[in-house]
Amino acid sequence: MLIDWFTVGAQVLNFLILVWLMKRFLYKPILNAIDAREKRIAKELADADATTAEARKEREEFQQKNDQFDQQRAALLSKAKDEAKTERQRLLDEARKAADVLSAKRQESLANDARNLNRAITRRTQDEVFAIARKTLTDLATTSLEERIGEVFTRRLRELNGEAKHVLAEALKTAAEPALVRSAFDLPTDQRAAIQVALNETFSAEIRVRFETAPDLVSGIELTTNGQKVAWSIADYLASLEQGVGELLKAKDNPKVEEAKPSSQDQ
Are 210 and 180 in contact (CB under 8 A)? Predict the structure, then answer.
């Protein structure tokens, strides 16, 4: 069989041209399209990874911010609780102090009322005793109560001795002002003279004396000079009586204390 090299060459040439044409117009565009698609897919995958990473980052930031918010909220809540507790304690303390102050004022008011009542009762008692004593002395003798008080005070001056006399003598000696004699009533001239004489004779000197009336001295007379004092008053006896009555009332208000004390028979 004879080979037609021309035909073979033409076919080979045709085949090569076909391959080149297919490669040029078919395979290459397909390969380019495949490459472009792969690149697009790779880009999309890379974009997806980036988006995922960004989403993960944003989620982590959100979680972190959420944790910080929770911590801040917990801190604010704890602070609010502490402040509320502190404010509650402050209000309680203020209320307690106000109650204590009110109680103290009430106690002070009650004590003042009691003192005022006690003074009123004491004053009334002294006035009544004064009136009864004056009436009794008037009925029993011709000497008035004022005269008797002056006599008792004069006798007390004459009976001064020892340290009391020495201290009063020094006070009279060093005093820049006259000795002051205060009495609850206006002393008659003869009683003033008797007191002046008693002072002069007791201290062997001419004692300067100034007389004043002091209604607050209930049935009494007092001599003051340079911080020293000699006095006599029915109030002294009433004070002793008041103390005794007070102790009696206190013992009456606390019977359990008396019952708790052992008796001589028990011992």
Answer: yes
Q: How far is CA 193 from CA 17, 22, 141, 188, in A?
A: 172, 165, 23, 9
- The whole-model pTM stands at 0.40
10 Å CB burial of residue 41 (0-12, 13-18, 19+) is: exposed
- Report d(CA 242, CA 123) in Å as an integer: 12
Phi then psi dihedrals of residue 142, to 5 deg = -90, -5
Judge whether 107 lies within some domain: no
Tokens of 33: 């399209």
pLDDT at 244: 63
What residues contact residue 194 under an 8 Å CB cut-off, 6+ apart?
150, 151, 154
The angle formed by the CA atoms of residues 12, 16 and 21, to the nearest 5 degrees, is 145
Question: Quick check: helix, strand or coil at residue 13?
Answer: helix
Question: Within a domain: residue 197?
Answer: yes
Element (H, E) at 211: strand 209-213
In a domain, 22, yes or no: no
Structure tokens at 79: 């602070």
Assigned domain for 72 exists: no
- Predicted local distance difference test score (pLDDT) of residue 116: 82
Do the beta carbons of residue 160 and residue 195 sit within 8 Å?
Answer: no
The percent of residues above 90 in pLDDT, for the chain, comes to 0
- The domain in which residue 211 lies consists of 143-253
pLDDT surpasses 80 at 173: yes
